[in-house]
Amino acid sequence: MIYLNNAATSFPKAPNIISSIEESLQKIPVGQFRSSENSESNIIKECKFNLSKFIKNKDCNKIFFTSGATESFNLIVNGLELNNSHVIVSATEHNSLLRPLFNSKDNIEISVIPCNNVGYINPLDIVGMIKDNTKAIFINHISNVTGVIQDVSKIGEIAKKNNLIYVVDGSQSCGCLDIDIEKTYADIFVFTSHKALLSISGLGGFYLKDNNLLALSKYGGTGKDSSSLILEKYSGEFEVGTQNIVAITALKHSCDYLLNIQLSTVYDNLRNMYQYLLNQLFLVKNIKLYYDYNFEFCSIISFNIVGIKASEVAYILTNSYDIILRVGLHCAPLIHKYINTENDGTLRVSISYFTQYTDIDEFVRALNDIVNSYVNEEYEYY
Fold it and tell me: How are beta strands 323-324 and 188-192 bridged, if at all?
């Protein structure tokens, strides 16, 4: 089986996390802040320390865990108190952000920044959208549809100049790009563990520059100050309830694995593999790539085969060649208006650190087989 759907969930995982999960489950359970035995607290701190290296964060206490990017965005949208305010989002955003915003009980005015035909946003387009009541800008760092990389630093400068809260979705970029959180000017940076960080699902979180930016929107037991039933509005208690120590342990060890390789090596490997994939796809007949050499891309390529439904190509790849990729809208509905794929979406191939050149060769060979079969056998084109 050749797995090329790493933008959804990476596979395989870092090789050391299975044993780390088993070891974690065999330990006597204790709760964070709730016992004289502090091994779990140490694992949490070590994991946050490791994560900080991926974004060059100097204070690991600014990182908070959630169950994933979706929960993070729900906490952020509710915690920013956006009632009667205006926010700006990009056309490339994932539903993990869009749905909390568009389904909010608050009165939120939402403006969508348009993108070009590969998903890139011109930062200058944002300037004219800012209003007197604009409160926040939300930007997806890497599009999970096309893989295009946004100029988050330039957009951050605009946010800072206009005193706006700046939220960056790093779900696809954390572990894939060399990120300096201070240079992005991000107030909040969202991450998840099961993509480029090569760990398991059920864990994510966010970097929060200043606890006072985010009000509490979720309550429960944390073990701190248990006698208090009423918490301060901006107390910083964002990690409520029992933490997912198993997933945190797994993420700590997957980060160990990537850090031991050295992040520069990881990033170089991904860039080289991406370029090889791109070059090979350019050779496929009748292929439509959602790519433009004028912009930067990473790890993800969307494409269609002219005349063949995307869903049919995906079906053949899976069932005849045992090659797994993703087809459809990829939970990012707005971008498809701009790349002209609203009806069927795209085929998406996404690589990881473990993708091999032979995987790409087999994938492209299969695509060529499919294209040639349709041409030679005169199948009906769509």
Answer: unpaired
CB 2 within 8 A of CB 350: no
Q: What's the pLDDT tens digit per position in 366-382?
A: 999 999 988 655 444 33
Residue 72 in tokens: 């993070």
Contacts of 289 (CB under 8 A, 6+ apart): 278, 281, 282, 301, 302, 303
Cα separation, 66 vs 244, in Å, equals 9
The string of pLDDT tens digits covering residues 52-106 is 999 999 999 999 999 999 999 999 999 999 999 999 999 999 999 999 999 999 9
**Which residues contact residue 337 at a Cβ distance below 8 angstroms, ignoring those fewer than 6 apart?**
91
For residues 176 and 217, is the Cβ–Cβ distance under 8 A?
no
Whose tokens are 């920044």? That residue is: 113
Positive or negative: CA dihedral 369, 335, 163, 80: negative
CA dist 187 and 169 (Å) reads 11
Which of 172, 144, 170, 199 minimizes the C-alpha distance to 76? 170
The alpha-helical segments, DSSP class H, found in 56-123 are 69-79, 95-102
Measured distance CA(343)–CA(198) in Å, rounded: 32
User: What domains lie within the chain, and their CATH numbers?
Assistant: 2-9+262-373 (3.90.1150.10), 17-261 (3.40.640.10)
How many residues are listed for the chain in this entry? 382
